[in-house]
Amino acid sequence: MIPRYIKWALFFVxxxxxxxxxxxxxxxxxxxxxxxxxxxxTAVIDAVVIAIVSRTLFQQFARTEQALSHERESxxxxxxxxxxxxxxHDQIAQSLFYAGVQIQAVKSRAAAYADPALQSELDDIxxxxxxxxxxxxxxxxxxxxxxxxxGAFEDRVRSYLDQTLSPTRIRWTMExxxxxxxxxxxxxxxxxxxxxxxxxxxxxxxxxxxxxxRLEADDRDSTRWxxxxxxxxxxxxxxxxxxxxxxxxxxxxxxxxTRARDMGAEFLVQSxxxxxxxxxxxxxxxxxxxxxxx
Length: 294
Fold this sequence. Notes:
By secondary structure, the protein is an alpha+beta fold. The chain contains seven helices and five strands. It comes from Alicyclobacillus acidoterrestris (strain ATCC 49025 / DSM 3922 / CIP 106132 / NCIMB 13137 / GD3B).
């Protein structure tokens, strides 16, 4: 849609400029500017004015087309996310539920044999199925969340935190440095996936009341960045070791570490009874010795 001021400009700017020049030409420049030269100057001014107005119009058209393109991309992404969510629900989630029912039936029959080792193995399988079911349902939830596609990364993070944590009792804050980090598209995708997994862990395991997310860059080089997710939950006595995290949280940590490794970043975890801090650093940030403000 063309703004009203551009429409008025198309009508009045060329007329006013050419009319003004013709007035000056026939009053003040009559004895200075020959008729033939005046006609050439008028044609040149007319062409310049039309070119400037047209350029403005074309720029507006380009912005409008870009906005429509982003809207189409966003719609396509949301439709694909909905399709994936339906597939996960209709196929994988239901299959896991049915497998769990079958395991319970096997456990009931196995109880007659009084075999503690068999019961223990069946309990482990049942627990694994429950964790898988929880992870799949959380993935379905994440896929159904609206995201700010095409917007700034920090806006997407804020939108996700608001949509995910606002319905809960967990408060959140988002902090950014100035300048903002210059993140590649692949880095944004991986960091957003890490954020989703970290928030899932907080909601399922941490019993936290507050989450703090910070995105910062080295003030000397915006390609050096650190992304931090911190909660005040119960934590776990990891001593910087992912392997010591319990059950499903350990798997989530391993997934986050893999995402960080895939983009060549460093994955750091500190956890105690006062909470957990997850930090992802670009290689250049870690090597630069930049000090974190977390």
